Amino acid sequence: MDSLQPRRLKRKGPLRFTSRRHAAAPRELFADRPQGGQLRAVRRLVLVMLWTAVALPLQAVLLLFPGRAKAQFARVYHRTLCRLIGLKVQVVGEVCRDRPVLYVANHSSWLDILALGGTLEACFVAKAEVDSYPLVNLIARLGRTVFVSRNRGTTGREADAMKAKMQAGDSLILFPEGTSNDGTRVLPFRSAFLGVAKEARQVQPISVVYDRLGGLPALRRDRAVFAWFGDMELGSHSWQLLRREGARVTVLLHQPFPPEAMPDRKVMTRECSRVVSAGAADLRQNRGARPLAAVAHHATTLSSHHA
Asked: What's the 3-state SS for 247-259?
């Protein structure tokens, strides 16, 4: 009869069925990110320098000939750089190919050049200070970058240079914020930068957000790993980034529209800013990314409201 009696478990506490692995997940997500290995950074840096040493002379030769080969190779160069530094580029949406296109994007880092340059066949519009950076200025010039300054005396000449590019069939990549930021928001767009939009057949807004680090969703504190702004040094910032792994940027291509769909340049600027900001906010919050439309009738309503 004793064998029919239930045995008492010799436990001092109750059974706990919580998985240690799942319980640790939140702590892993919010814990400090590992700095990464210096050997990884050295390997990536050497590969980048070797690839650049091969690509620059080839691009210099391609510039001597007509056709799209120089624009296509520039895209290959930037795309390869992304792979070499361990940055995965996720593209959502369709690239508008009704050239010339004015691509309008937010700006938070020098990495934007690699991500967008590897996605689009277009020339960048960069601030004049970039032309003073050693090696970077050589790469920018071979990529047919248009440099703009804040000097009002050169505004007309720089506008003519951008118009000439578009009249020749080249698309442009423009950062209407005028500067980079910490990656947690999109700064107001400046309407003066979109003065060249009338030369384009289409305008396509783009949201760029760095949303993965170490294979996990990037948090607010992780934005500084990617963002390059203020008085940050390019060398130290690049070195810290090259040590990391599992980094990803999402390039969200919104629906393009013809410039004449907007009543004026200021309305176009506000509408592009609205679309880019909304798309970037969704990406930062790890929501499902989807291309948004710059609605013409909505823009007209905004124009009459602010009149």
From this structure: EEEEEEECCCECH
CATH number assigned to the domain comprising residue 137: 3.40.1130
pLDDT tens per residue across all 307 residues of the chain: 555 555 555 555 554 544 444 444 454 444 555 566 899 999 999 999 999 999 999 999 999 999 999 999 999 999 999 999 999 999 999 999 999 999 999 999 999 999 999 999 999 998 888 877 788 888 888 889 998 876 655 556 778 888 989 998 999 999 999 888 888 999 999 998 898 999 999 999 999 999 999 989 999 889 889 998 888 888 889 999 999 999 999 999 999 999 999 999 999 999 999 999 999 999 999 888 899 998 764 444 444 444 4
In a domain, 20, yes or no: no
CB-based contacts of 39, cutoff 8 Å, min separation 6? none
Tokens for 73?
Answer: 């190779």
Do the beta carbons of residue 176 and residue 193 sit within 8 Å?
Answer: yes
Burial of 214 (0-12, 13-18, 19+ CB in 10 A): middle
Is residue 116 situated within a structural domain? yes
Structural domain contains residue 254: yes
DSSP-assigned letter for residue 32: P
Identify the domain containing residue 87 by its residue range: 36-306
In a domain, 179, yes or no: yes
CB 216 within 8 A of CB 29: yes
Q: What is the pTM of this model?
A: 0.83
Nearest to 213 by CA among 252, 250, 245, 183: 245
Work out how many domains the chain is built from and give that number.
1
The DSSP letter of residue 286 is T
Half-sphere exposure of 212 (CA within 13 A, CB side): 15
